[in-house]
Amino acid sequence: MTENFDLVIVGTGPNGAAIAQQVHAQVPEASVLVIEAGREVTDVAGAHLVEADESALTASYDDLMRRARQIEYVKGAASMTALDDDGWTPDDTGIFPAAFLGHNFAEFPGASIAWNIGGMGVHWTAATPWPYAEEIPDFLPREEWDADQETARRLLRTSVGPLVLDMENAFTEPLLAALRDAVPSPDPTRQADYMPMGGVARQGKPFGRTGPRDIAPFVFDGSARNVWLRSGLLVTRLEHDGRRVTGLATRDLVSGEESRWEGRVVLIAADALRTPQLLWASGIRPAALGVRLNEHATVDGEVEIDETRFGLTKADIPVPPRGEPFIGSFWSPSIGAARPAHGQLMQREFEGRHKLSVGWYCATEIRPQNRVVFSDDAVDELGMPHMTVHFSYSDDDLAEIERTREVQRAAARAIGDFPDDERTIQPPGASLHYTGTVRMGVNDDGMSVVDTDGRVWGFENLFLAGNGVIPTALTCNATLAGVTLSVRIARAVAAQL
Ligand SMILES: Cc1cc2nc3c(=O)[nH]c(=O)nc-3n(C[C@H](O)[C@H](O)[C@H](O)COP(=O)(O)OP(=O)(O)OC[C@H]3O[C@@H](n4cnc5c(N)ncnc54)[C@H](O)[C@@H]3O)c2cc1C
Asked: What is the pLDDT of residue 65?
């Protein structure tokens, strides 16, 4: 069976959804097929888990998130599914360690991948801080970046303020004042403040985190007559003649049925690991494919809030509505090269203890030895190329991590007692913000995979999107930066259509 579409998008995470929304808005008559390997994780496809009926999940988003360490979430989320000693079956859906299909992630052990409709976008915390200074690609016109970032903020529904309307939090101002003193900034717009969050604050309900369904509802509810979603289909290969993609081969993961689809334009948004894997599987192998994998280092920790320092008591701790893991969400922004580190500070109560998690992300060098190597002959359980990740920190990275620990220590000690052994460097991959594997560049010089429109060098109709396209070393969470580039890439796709 072959079917023809104007555009075929692979992946239903925030980036696939953003591309679909933007292209549909600009070329409403274009026929669009969206292909997704995963299945529904709840009964509302593409909606964030915070909206799910708790009883439908073996472990709730609230409970997992309250632990407030992403790595705990990922471990817990794997247990939501049937991933057990028998390994993975195509019916399993959710978030899994990236090594689960037999890949070698020994040097990047924290990495995970989503295997469900909506990708990681139905699981995410939804912090959407914006990139700053060196984090913004210097080769893109700045006014275009700024306008696209505004569109991305709108798509992700970024808001800045309390997580729950009408929930008084007497700790907000004292915590922010203490953080501003402890981690000063020369730029008044880069002071500790509320964390920009992708979603909607509501009264008496958890913060309504933006899922891909909020970005492009018509992809998931079938309300557009010329947009179709096919889930449970793994794209196994792009057929091409070296200049144009002529077809996509898929396999139904449950029935094994093989199909073929055609798109005048093809866009792959299958995450920073599986997008380059699919290109490799298809014999599209630019020199930069998988090379210069980058990830900020994660310096984790949590401090028990000393209420007495702020003239408050335990009676002042607000109780968020059922389903909302956090009381407050705050941000200590990076200030560029002088402090390329960004703090994500989540206030919460867990097992009777009132805590602020003090997680800092610090930028690391972009280096060619950090890379995903795809095998020519070894395959994973699905028959896709086997991946080995090489990743290490340079001496400069290690020095920056130490400086970041000092920043974290100063912040935490302004809040409560913070012994040195409270801090951990999370294993590489644990931030889930991997970038650079299909990076954007200005010239086809072997350093990039796509041009500034997201088009694969040498191809007329093959575009890529997602965190892998981001060419810079980020301090901040990656999704807003990735979706900002997706807005740009969608414009080029729409123009081509
Ligand atoms: C617990 C958690 C918390 C997070 N918190 C934050 C946060 O606070 N802020 C932030 O910025 N980011 C956060 N992230 C990361 C964020 O979710 C990702 O940056 C974002 O989802 C990336 O979007 P994407 O569309 O590029 O990829 P994904 O969301 O990963 O979606 C990719 C999709 O492609 C599909 N796919 C892959 N290969 C194929 C194939 N061959 N055929 C068909 N389909 C395929 C996958 O099944 C998947 O659904 C978090 C993630 C998690 C798990």
From this structure: 67
Q: How are beta strands 227-231 and 32-36 bridged, if at all?
A: parallel
Q: How confident is the model at residue 55 (pLDDT cuts 50, 70, 90)?
A: low
- Residue 291 DSSP label: B
- Closest CA to ligand 1's atom 38: 270
Q: Containing domain of residue 148, as a range?
A: 2-157+213-296+434-496
Residue nearest to atom 3 of ligand 1 (CA): 124
Query: What CATH number does the domain containing 65 carry?
Result: 3.50.50.60
Catalytic residue numbers read: 433
d(CA 449, CA 462): 11
Is 38 a pocket residue for ligand 1 (Cβ < 6 Å)? yes
HSE-CB at 196 with a 13 A cutoff on CA atoms is: 19
| Tokens 């490799």, residue located | 280
Residue 205 belongs to a domain: no
| 70 occurs within a structural domain | yes
pLDDT of residue 82: 46
Q: Is residue 357 in some structural domain? A: no
pTM of this prediction? 0.96
> Is residue 139, in this structure, part of any structural domain at all?
yes
Q: Residue 75 above 90 pLDDT?
A: no
Q: Which two tokens stand for residue 368?
A: 């060619």
Average of per-residue pLDDT values in the chain = 93
